[in-house]
């Protein structure tokens, strides 16, 4: 079940008062707990209503009204989307809202599902879109350097290394030599909900990727250039990072672990 946990607006949020560093830290910790529990889908804060507008349709014609709007307690200051098993579970997460936010009002609303609607062509169109997988992840194999590589990728991308399980910690321990018990059987790096996974593969199980690159997409061209340089340390530049006809910056590099990357800041004209 998917629920939206809505944080209602108040006088401070409507005035555009930004959260303190203490509250930002508390909210970051709160989100991290939900991410690790597998219930966090997305969440954002909203700017004051004076920077927005309402579009009302009357007799088929849209009418735009610029903010700010009255009835502050009916407005939203932010929201979090949760994927949980029940309303009770959603309520428990709501109860855990950071106390640093002060006296706030939260509201939970459940999303509709396909089962709530009668079958038909319109519903089938939405069902087709829903057939897409939850995510498309990448898995890399290493000859014994997985721990070092994944720690490096976590540092470069700012992602969360959420798992680094050794062979000795799994039932596979009996099937690998003792000297491999401290090698990685499964590692997972979470980057904005996308996972880069990896493992050390004994014997001839390691297969360096061929004809495939990992693609990092950045809004800021300077940040992209810095990441490109980090990945190039001890590796090989395949294409220098520079402006192209479709990107403000693009480069290709094979890092010191033999993994190939594309780093880019696409232009506004190129989605």
Task: Write the SSE topology.
Elements: E1 2-8, H1 11-14, H2 21-37, E2 40-45, E3 53-58, E4 61-66, E5 76-83, H3 87-95, E6 106-110, H4 121-130, E7 138-142, H5 146-157, E8 160-166, E9 184-191, E10 194-200, E11 214-217, H6 221-232, E12 236-242, E13 247-254, E14 260-266
Parallel strand pairs: 7-10, 11-14
Antiparallel strand pairs: 1-5, 1-6, 2-5, 3-4, 8-9, 9-10, 12-13, 13-14
Key phrases:
271 residues, alpha+beta, 4-stranded antiparallel beta sheet, 4-stranded mixed beta sheet, 6 helices, 14 strands, PhnB-like protein, YCII, Glyas_Bleomycin-R_OHBP_Dase
Could you explain the architecture of this structure?
- The structure is a single chain.
- Helix content is 24%, strand content 34%.
- With 271 residues, the protein is α+β, with helices and mostly antiparallel strands.
- Strands 2-5-1-6 form a four-stranded antiparallel sheet. A four-stranded mixed sheet has the order 7-10-9-8, covered by helices on one side. A four-stranded mixed sheet has the order 11-14-13-12, with helices on one face.
- Strand 13 and strand 14 form a beta hairpin.
Summarize the entry for a quick read.
With 271 residues, this protein is α+β, with helices and mostly antiparallel strands. The protein contains 6 helices and 14 strands.
Mean pLDDT: 93
Can you count the beta strands?
14
Tally of individual helices: 6
Coarse structural class: alpha+beta
Strand arrangement across the biggest beta sheet: 2-5-1-6
Gyration radius, in Å:
24 Å
CA-CA gap between termini: 32 Å
Binned, the helix content reads 10-25%
Uncertain segments of ≥5 residues (pLDDT<50)?
none
Order of helices and strands: EHHEEEEHEHEHEEEEHEEE
């Amino acid at each position: 079940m998917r629920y939206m946990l809505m944080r209602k607006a108040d006088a401070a949020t409507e005035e555009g008062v930004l959260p303190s560093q203490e509250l930002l830290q508390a909210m970051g910790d709160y989100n991290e707990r939900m991410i690790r529990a597998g219930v966090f889908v997305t969440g954002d804060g909203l700017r004051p209503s004076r920077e927005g507008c309402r579009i009302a349709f009357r007799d088929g014609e849209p009418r735009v009204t610029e903010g700010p709007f009255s009835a502050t307690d009916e407005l939203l200051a932010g929201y979090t989307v949760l994927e949980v098993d029940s309303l009770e579970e959603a309520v428990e997460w709501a109860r855990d809202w950071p106390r640093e936010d002060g006296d706030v009002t939260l509201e939970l609303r459940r999303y509709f599902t396909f089962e709530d609607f009668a079958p038909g062509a319109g519903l089938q169109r939405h069902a087709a879109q829903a057939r897409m997988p939850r995510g498309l992840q990448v898995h890399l194999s290493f000859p014994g350097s997985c721990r070092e590589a994944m720690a490096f990728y976590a540092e470069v991308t700012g992602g969360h290394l959420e798992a680094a399980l050794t062979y000795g910690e799994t039932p596979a321990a009996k099937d690998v030599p003792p000297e491999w018990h401290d090698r990685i059987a499964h590692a997972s790096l979470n980057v904005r909900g996308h996972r880069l996974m990896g493992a050390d593969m004994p014997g001839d199980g390691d297969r360096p990727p061929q004809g495939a690159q990992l693609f990092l997409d950045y809004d800021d061209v300077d940040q992209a250039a810095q990441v490109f340089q980090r990945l190039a340390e001890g590796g090989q530049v395949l294409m220098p990072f520079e402006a192209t006809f479709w990107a403000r910056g693009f480069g290709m590099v094979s890092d010191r672990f033999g993994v190939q990357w594309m780093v880019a800041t696409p232009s506004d004209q190129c989605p």
